[in-house]
Amino acid sequence: MGISDSALREIVLLKKLRHENIVELKEVAVSRDPQGMFLVMEYCEQDLAKLLDEMVHPFTEPQVKCLMQQLFRALDYMHSHYVLHRDLKVSNLLLTSHGILKVADFGLARVFGDPDMSMTPRVVFESASPVAVDLLNALFTYDPKRRISAAAALAHPFFTERPLPCDPVLIPSLPPSHSKKRKREESLQI
């Protein structure tokens, strides 16, 4: 069975990425059990998802600016080292007792620009409504101005304590060439 691809990927990337706003991998411990591998990370008191759930009042604007600045610094560092996280969400953002934000969980991360590392168009997100894979693949043909970045989506709950509302305009639809109506019309013309 061995080590999973996501665990191996996370180990390799965390050994490569050294930044104040990225969780530090201290060591890898392996037990006698083939399934027993443990990643020992630096200690962070909580993740932002738990903090947001327990907060009585939303973050102040200066607090949001501080957190977002730390997130952008981590993203800038990752991207300058050709790493895409691909699973940014508040539960993967940790916070130390000193208010330092740490990006964690690199199991879905990928190196980009490397021809040996194939990229998949898979999108991972937390949502109450499932989206078909063909609709997700269709996202790549849409106007980028209609997309929302992961960092922008993360800023919303900092201000409101609620997830970003689902705007129907942001839900992808199939391009005309994929619609059933068009296929039906084409089959009738033959």
Topology readout:
Layout: H1 5-16, E1 25-30, E2 37-41, E3 46-47, H2 48-54, H3 61-80, E4 83-84, E5 93-95, E6 101-103, E7 110-111, H4 133-138, H5 150-160, H6 180-189
Antiparallel strand pairs: 1-2, 3-5, 4-7, 5-6
Helix pairs in contact: 3-5
Written description of the protein model:
The protein is of the alpha+beta class and 190 residues long. Helix content is 35%, strand content 12%. The chain has six helices and seven strands, in the order αβββααββββααα. The strands form three sheets. Strands 3-5-6 form a three-stranded antiparallel beta sheet. Strand 5 (93-95) and strand 6 (101-103) form a beta hairpin. It starts with a helix and ends with a helix. Keywords: ATP-binding, Kinase, Nucleotide-binding, Serine/threonine-protein kinase, Transferase.
Strand content: 5-15%
Computed over alpha carbons, the radius of gyration is 20 Å
Percent of residues in helices comes to 25-40%
The CATH homologous superfamily name equals Transferase(Phosphotransferase) domain 1
Short description:
35% of the residues lie in helices and 12% in strands.
Tags for this model:
190 residues; alpha+beta; Transferase(Phosphotransferase), domain 1; three-stranded antiparallel beta sheet; two-stranded antiparallel sheet; globular; kinase; CDK
